Amino acid sequence: MSGFAELWAQIAPVGRDAQTGGYLRYAYAPAEQALRAWFLDQARARDLLVEEDGNGNVFAWWGDPSAGDAVLTGSHLDSVPHGGAYDGPLGVVSALLAVDALRERGVRPVRPIGIAVFAEEEGSRFGLACLGSRLLAGAVDPAAAAALTDRDGITLDEAMRTALGHGPRGARPDLLGRIGCYVELHVEQGRALLDLDRAVGVASAIWPHGRWRLDFTGEANHAGTTLMADRRDPMLTFAATVLAANEQARRLGAHATVGRVQVYPNATNAIPGKVSAWLDARADSTETVEQVVAAVHLRAQARAAEDGTTVTLTAESVSPETEFHGGLRDRLSKLLDGAPILPTGAGHDAGVLSAFVPTAMLFVRNPTGVSHSPAEHAPDADCEAGVTALATVLEDLAC
Ligand code: GLV
Ligand code: MN
Ligand code: MN
Ligand code: MN
User: Fold this and answer.
1) The complex's ipTM?
2) pTM score, two decimals?
C-alpha cells in the first residue's frame, strides 16, 4: 500500500474554492506557497536534501546530488484558475510515495533520485507557461521574466521577493548538468487510457503549441446615444475572430481556444474601447499551428477593416513539438507490462527539460477525460497504480 489517500487528503483543502470545487493555486500566492511549505516538510521528514535553484523551483534529493547522473521525477503545484486537483500535485505526491515504497523494499539506488517541484507551470499568473523550468534551462531571460506582470500589476520580481526573498536568477547549467533523466507522472488529460482499459500509460510526444495575445482597439462610446452606423466596436471584431479560430482549427485538424478575455472599460452601457483576448493554438505539427494562427490573424484583420477597428497579434509563448526520448519511452512501456504509448496536446515541464536530458512521462487514467476543470479526476486505485509504476521505473533507472 502506498498510502495515497492519506497523503492526498493533506493537500486536498489547500486553495480549494468551496463554491466551484476548483483550485486557485497561483504561483507565489498563499495557497501555492502553503503547498510548497508542505512539500518541504514532507521532504525533510524523509531526510531528503532540499535544494532551491533561485528560480522558484525546489528539488528534494535522496542520495548525493553532486554525484550527478540523477534520476529526477516530480511535477508542479500551481493550478489554472478553478482547475482540478490532480494536474501537477499528482506527480509530486506520487514521487514522495514512490520513494517511500522503494525504501520499504530496502532498495539502495546507485544514482541519486530527485523530486522536483517546478514553479508557475501553468503560466496562470504571469502568462508564460513552464516559467520555472524555462528559467532553470536558460530558455527565458531572467530580466525579461522579472518584469512580467500579473492581473494586479504585480511583477514576477515582486512576487518572488515577497515569497522567497529574491527575484529570478536564471540559467543553472550546473544543476541541469547533474540530471541524468527526468520522468514526470501526470494525470491524463483525455480519455485514451479509459478506452484502452489501462490505468497507466507512457507519453510519446507533446503537440507544438503556443499562446498569442490579440488586442482589438476601437472607440469607447455611449451605448444609448451612439448610432449603430457610427460605432467602432472592437467587441464585434473580437467575436468574429473567436468564430474564425474555431472554424480554422476544425478545417486544419488543430485545436484553437480563446479562454481568456479582458474588456475595457467592461461596462454594460459602454461600447468598449479595447478588447484583449488570448488565443491558444495546438496541432500535431508546427506548420499547422502557424497556419491556424496566420489564418485567424488574416480573418481578424479583414473584420477589423469592416468594423473600423484595429487588431494586433503578439506571441507570448511558443513551444515546439516535443518527442520524448525513444529509448526511455520504450523501456518504460516494457517495464510496465506494455503500457500504451500516447501523444498529448498538453504542455509540461517535461517538454522543456527534454531539450536537455532524456525525458519521459507517465499518465494516470482520468475517467472524466476532463482537465483544467474541477471535473478532473483519478480514482485512488489508479493513483496507487501510478505510484507503483513510478517506483518500478525509478528502481529500474537508478539501481
Ligand atoms: C498546461 O497545462 C497547458 O497545456 O497549457
Ligand atoms: Mn495544466
Ligand atoms: Mn500539469
Ligand atoms: Mn501543463
Assistant:
1) 0.92
2) 0.95
Q: Which amino acid is at 365?
A: R
Helices 326-335 & 380-398 angle (0-180, nearest 10) = 120
Instruction: Indicate if 255 and 335 belong to the same structural domain.
Output: no
SS3 of 7-27 = HHHHHCCCCECCCCCCECCCC
**Domain containing 96: what range?**
4-207+323-398
Distance CA 35, CA 51 (A): 16
- Please write the tens of the pLDDT for every residue from 331-386: 999 999 999 999 999 999 999 999 999 999 999 999 999 999 999 999 999 999 99
Same domain? 277 vs 343 = no
Cα separation of 369 and 346, whole Å? 13
Residues 53 and 173 in one domain: yes
Give how far Cα 319 sits from Cα of 198, 228, 345, Å: 29, 42, 11
Which residue's C-alpha comes closest to atom 5 of ligand 1? Answer: 347
> Which CATH number covers residue 133?
3.40.630.10
Q: Is the CB of 346 under 6 A from ligand 1?
A: yes
**Does the beta carbon of 208 sit less than 6 angstroms from any atom of ligand 1?**
no
Ion ligand 3: protein residues whose beta carbon lies under 5 Å: 87-88
Candidate of 82, 186, 372, 376 to mutate for ligand 1, largest count of ligand atoms within 8 Å of Cβ:
372
Atom 3, ligand 1: residue with shortest CA distance: 347
pLDDT (tens digit, 9 = 90+) per residue, 113-142? 999 999 999 999 999 999 999 999 999 999
Domain boundary pick from 272, 304, 319: 319
